[in-house]
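Revision sheet: structure tokens.
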Amino acid sequence: MLQVASRVERANYAIRDPDVASKVKELKAKGRKTYELNIGDPGANKGIYGFQTPDYIKKALIGIIQKNGEFDGYASEQGELETRQAIADYSRSLGISDCDPEKIVVGNGLSELLDYYFGVSVEKGRNVVLPRPDYPLYTARVNWYEGEPRYYTMDPKNDWKPKVEEIEAQIDKNTTAVVLINPNNPTGAVLDEEELRAIIDVVNDKGKGEVPIISDEIYHLLRFDGKQHISTASLTDDVPVITMDGFSKGFYSPGWRIGHMLFSNFKDDSLFKAMVKVCAFRLSANNAVQHAYAVGIRERENNMAEYTKYLRWLKERARYTTDRINSIKGLSCNAPKGAFYALPKVESMKWKTDKEFILQLLEEEGVRIVPGSGFAMPAGEGYFRVVTLPSMDVQKTAYDKVEAFMGRHVA
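Predicted:
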């Protein structure tokens, strides 16, 4: 019998964990209602949360696909110049000085591009420095390519701020990247300029100007404090930075699958050329949709009504999530500052692992959440991730069930 490759066992993705998905399927087959607080998808469940891709982008895509087949063929493997120029112009508005459209690559979502980047930079003997908690795909892909994930702590006792000294301790001659997620998934934390500069300084000193920062900024339009986002690459001309952004979150379009990487401050272009080479293997990102992405970027400031409404909803729902969880005996939660997640904690864990906790909650109450161990947190510490996207009515029902569960199991 043909054997499954060993790399499959090394990589896991907790957000769609097969054991949990199987249990959800089983419950639904029995006619049970489930409350799925596991995936950060504004368009989930056929738009039941109320978020949609803004109308001006939908209309742009309709116009694009009706242009007599002009966008029906493959695009450039690197991404269409119109799209890359729109990205470069926007990046410049964020203060990034090195934002050449020729150093941008467009993909079918950031997950694809991250896979390709680790494919060209990670192998056995190399390491990537990641936040703990991280987004599961980072650890999964580093493991997939036989690299070593190394972690620095995002401190829950300090509002999920990074322990910069741990970043310094983890970097060595075999480090291929240091990853920042800002705003953060899964905690909703936001790094300020002082913290970013401290990280840049450490990476510059310890990495000798050779180790790139991967700055995942896909949630940068979803800050709750009303302040301008500070892009990591805007703060340095010395440290190489790969800025990651895309359609999914700030444009409420995760199913459209367009993301990009901008390479800034690299002393040579070998990694970038390798990325473009690998992107050619899949021929191109979606042609029509990346042109609509260009319109989405260029015309965003002229179409703010929907964005303003949606951000208000996100702030209100995040506040409700935090207040409600903190009102439940045995749970605690730091308030998110952006994105649409929170990472609560079960205090005085009775369960051996967080996965045991979330499976029992799912079985008894039909509420689906994600164990913190899926984000590289210790399984016995009791962390779990929830999304804050559902309406307050849906959240109330879900957290009523969580409260009933905790009332039965926590003295």
